[in-house]
Amino acid sequence: MAKIKITQIKSVIDRSERQKRTIQALGLKKVNQSVEVEATPAIIGMVKAVNHLVAIEKI
Fold first, then answer.
1. Domain ranges of the chain
2. How far apart are CA 52 and CA 14, in angstroms?
């Protein structure tokens, strides 16, 4: 599987609880933090749900 780098670019303040938990499940805790994960269908789905809060790069 390919790896992707996910960077949180916006805060989760004033976002729904579901979006906050999705960001947390991706391993992000604060703005400008990045994580590298495998591009599984589950991860892709989570990224699509919060795509307005994160930036994605293929590695």
1. 3-58
2. 13
How many other β-carbons are positioned within 10 Å of the β-carbon of residue 56?
13
pLDDT of residue 1: 78
pLDDT for position 53: 97
pTM comes to 0.92
Under CATH, what is the fold of the domain 3-58?
Ribosomal Protein L30; Chain: A, (3.30.1390)
Torsional class of 20: left (φ above 0), alpha (ψ -120 to 50), beta (otherwise): alpha
Collect the ranges in the chain with pLDDT lower than 50: none
Greatest CA separation for the chain? 34
User: SS3 for 45?
Assistant: helix
